[in-house]
Specification:
Layout (H helix, E strand, L loop, with lengths): L10 E3 L1 H9 L4 E7 L7 H10 L3 E5 L1 H7 L8 E5 L7 H10 L5 E6 L4 H13 L4 E5 L8 H6 L9 E4 L2 H10 L3 E11 L9 E6 L7 H6 L2 E4 L11 H17 L1
Parallel strand pairs: 2-3, 5-6, 5-9, 6-7, 8-9, 8-10
Antiparallel strand pairs: 1-4, 2-4
Length: about 250
């Protein structure tokens, strides 16, 4: 998804600037190509992005104009993350180094950057060791996320993975319990979170994907008494993170 003009201060516009950023090894979040653009260095830019597994998105020239704030983009632009991504192993290693059981949050296609930023903010104060997001169909670490996190992004490790389901399998093999948040689960207060664990927070509209939900060790739910049957993703994540913190503080 394209974000608002807030992302203009972490965007590179134009063929040569984008190509040089790629050559320098800079961590690129995604490449934006205007419909119908070709020739010149475009093929080389696309090839380099494909080789590095960078998401390539084709957009209308009008959208690219808006996204670049009127800058001369020559049909191509790239966004870069406000903070460098780490690996899942980096997160687990950090928990080990400080002598704590791993505590992770997996965001399964959280698309609203305000939600992701709010989750990062709460995660930092709740002692979460790291957050995992997918490369596709997810908000990235852009300006809106950085702003909403109120500085927490500077201290939070964020890993970006190709496949959430495969990552869940890998974590389970390493002894991490996976708890998925869904309205049709067990009361969240009945679970002991002092084990190595990861909370899975699903998409704002669809929730956790069926395959990921199937792989969870347990589905947990928040009790609700009102007429609506769901909470904002970042609010639900916040309640669950504080529950983990409470368990581990005893």
């Amino acid at each position: 998804m394209l974000e608002s003009k807030d992302t203009q201060n972490n965007i590179i516009c134009g063929r040569n600037p984008v190509l040089e950023a790629l050559r320098s090894g800079r961590e690129i979040d995604r490449l934006l190509i205007a419909h119908g653009v070709s020739g010149g260095s475009i093929s080389e830019i696309i090839a380099k992005c494909s080789k590095r597994g960078i998401l390539i998105k084709e957009v209308s020239p009008q959208k690219l104009d808006y996204f670049c704030g009127g800058a001369n983009h020559q049909g191509v632009a790239a966004t870069f993350a406000y903070r460098e991504y780490c690996s899942v192993d980096d997160i687990l290693d950090f928990a080990s180094e400080i002598g704590e059981e791993p505590f992770l949050v997996i965001c399964d296609e959280i698309e609203d950057p305000h939600n992701l930023g709010a989750i990062i903010r709460t995660a930092e104060v709740c002692g979460v060791h790291g957050i995992i997001i997918p490369k596709r169909r997810s908000a990235s670490l852009n300006a809106t996320v950085a702003k909403t996190s109120a500085g927490a992004l500077e201290y939070m490790r964020v890993a970006r993975v190709t496949n959430i389901a495969a990552t869940v399998d890998s974590l389970k093999q390493k002894g991490v319990w996976i708890f998925g948040a869904d309205m049709n689960g067990e009361d969240y207060s009945l679970t002991d979170y002092r084990v190595p664990c990861a909370l899975v927070i699903g998409n704002e509209g669809k929730g956790i994907g069926p395959l990921v939900a199937k792989k969870c060790d347990k589905i947990i739910s928040l009790p609700m008494k009102g007429r609506i049957n769901s909470l904002n993703a970042s609010v639900a994540a916040g309640v669950l993170m504080y529950r983990v913190l409470e368990c581990r503080s005893k």
